[in-house]
Design goal:
By secondary structure, this protein is an all-alpha fold. Helix content is about 80%, strand content about 0%.
């Protein structure tokens, strides 16, 4: 009897102990696969472990209510969605270097006004990540390695984003 069939049978019988046992079997059988899928996109082991737990928590909240005919496929889908949500959240959590209020407050000196105007010109062409990488490297003297760590990106990707953003901005300014 497959796990899916045993799960359906235990749900019909409303056998809580059997359901817990089947859930533990599902976790043992598929946690490695879920972890593998997540680790293709998330590098920190702690984040991978947290996401594996999140996936099985989400699965546990629906596996009794829904008739799941393909446990593996369902867990793969949850793993992909949880990973995408994690990456989107992580990207939105990155500090914004060019916060408008900060710039306006510090734009007391005329040279700072030029900085403020430059930021607004950049906003017309570049996205916030590109602007932040340029500012962190060119203005605040961060190395590409430091920026890469901040954004959880490879150093080469960070450098490429910087180079492309500079070229994109130069085309508009010229």
């Amino acid at each position: 009897m497959t796990l899916e069939e045993r799960l359906l049978h235990a749900k019909k019988k409303r056998n809580v102990e059997k359901l817990e046992s089947i859930f533990n079997e599902i976790y043992k059988e598929y946690s490695g696969l879920v972890g593998y899928i997540i680790s293709k996109y998330v590098s920190r082991k702690e984040d991978v472990d947290d996401l594996i737990d999140d996936c099985f928590i989400k699965f546990s909240s629906v596996f009794i209510e829904k008739d799941i005919t393909n446990i593996k496929g369902y867990l793969v889908k949850i793993a992909k969605n949880e990973t995408i949500n994690f990456i989107k959240k992580k990207d939105s959590d990155v500090d914004i270097v060019y916060d408008d209020e900060y710039i306006k407050k510090d734009a007391q000196i005329e040279s700072d006004r030029g900085y403020y105007d430059l930021i607004h010109d950049m906003e017309r062409v570049l996205n916030s990540k590109e602007i932040n990488i340029i500012l962190l490297h060119a203005v605040y003297d961060y190395s590409f390695k430091e920026i890469a760590e901040k954004y959880h990106l490879p150093i080469s990707t960070t450098s490429s984003i910087y180079q492309r953003a500079i070229k994109k901005f130069q085309k508009v300014v010229r």
